[in-house]
């Protein structure tokens, strides 16, 4: 299956995929407010359309200015187990 391997500063966080039917996503956000330095986070998840479930592997992991976030697209037989699954609304 096609999967993503996500690393921050060279440290592998997870390999994630949903099989033959679904959506994968990795999202880095930065939140700024007046008078504050800001906060960043990384979330990784997707949608397993065969099971009609949202799936999460990472979220949120703090990121800081200067961090390097790497997403590698790979072909694998096995992925890391998700940390959370919940029914998709229809």
DSSP strand (E) fraction? over 45%
Identify the quaternary structure here: single chain
Q: Compute the gyration radius: what is it? A: 14 Å
Number of strands: 7
Q: Total domains, how many?
A: 1
Contiguous low-pLDDT stretches (5 residues minimum) are: none
Major sheet: arrangement of strands: 3-4-5-7
| Largest sheet report | 4 strands, antiparallel
Shape type: flat
Instruction: Give the N-to-C terminal Cα separation.
Output: 26 Å
In helices, the fraction of residues equals: under 10%
Based on helices, strands and strand pairing, what is the structural class? mainly beta
Number of helices: 0
| Order of H and E elements | EEEEEEE
- Mean of pLDDT: 93
Molecular structure report:
There is one protein chain. With 90 residues, the chain is mostly beta strands. It has strands at residues 2-8, 11-16, 22-31, 39-48, 53-63, 69-75, 84-87. The strands form 2 sheets. Strands 3-4-5-7 form a 4-stranded antiparallel beta sheet, with no helix packed on it. Strands 2-1-6 form a 3-stranded antiparallel beta sheet, with no helix packed on it. The radius of gyration is 14 Å and the shape is flat. 14% of the residues are buried.
């Amino acid at each position: 299956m096609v999967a993503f391997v996500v690393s921050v500063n060279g440290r592998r966080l997870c390999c994630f995929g949903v099989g033959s039917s679904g959506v994968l996503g990795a999202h880095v956000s930065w939140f700024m407010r007046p008078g504050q330095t800001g906060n960043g986070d990384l979330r990784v998840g997707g949608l397993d359309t065969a099971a009609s479930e949202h799936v999460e592997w990472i979220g949120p992991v703090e990121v800081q200015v200067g961090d390097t976030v790497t997403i590698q697209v790979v072909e694998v037989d096995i992925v890391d187990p998700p940390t959370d699954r919940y029914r998709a609304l229809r």
